[in-house]
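Shift notes (night). Ran DUF4136 domain-containing protein while the centrifuge was going.
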Amino acid sequence: MRPLRLPAALLSLALLGACSSYQVTYDYDVTASYGRYRTFDYYTSKKGTGGTTNLMDKRVRAAVEKELQAKGFAMETKADPDFLVTYYPIVQERRYRTTTHVGWGWGYRPVYGHIGTSTSQVHHYKEGSIVIEIVDFKSNQMIWQGAAAGALTGLDNPEDADEVVPRAVRDILAKFPPK
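Came back to this:
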């Protein structure tokens, strides 16, 4: 009979869970008039930085544009837009500990004995999230914010990222504009 490797099984389940799901949260200004918003641009382009800095930024930007345009918003780069969009992928180093206890005992009340040992391991992984913020152009106040915590966790190759990022952005922007 093969021994069960409990720490490896727990590690596999934890990573599988991390790869397959993310948690979407959002918050918004209840006093904003969302019905008047028709056009958007990116906050970075108004600050003069222009383009994106890496491949994940490009994926997120393309997904944000696609979702906003599908909702009827038009990209406005020549005149002043109604709102500005900023987004950023966040990747943080995370860790968790597993402990394995091995031992055996003997005896009966009132005499009992036990011999054993424990080993602990610290496992490191990167947790990635996508944050999208929407700012009213005229007031320069944030009116909406959404995030998909864990959406970028466990993306091992570009194909995974190309599949997960658009789905996460769609899920984030599902609540924009608020009803």
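The CA atoms of residues 5 and 100 lie 10 Å apart. Residues 55-70 form the longest helix (16 residues).
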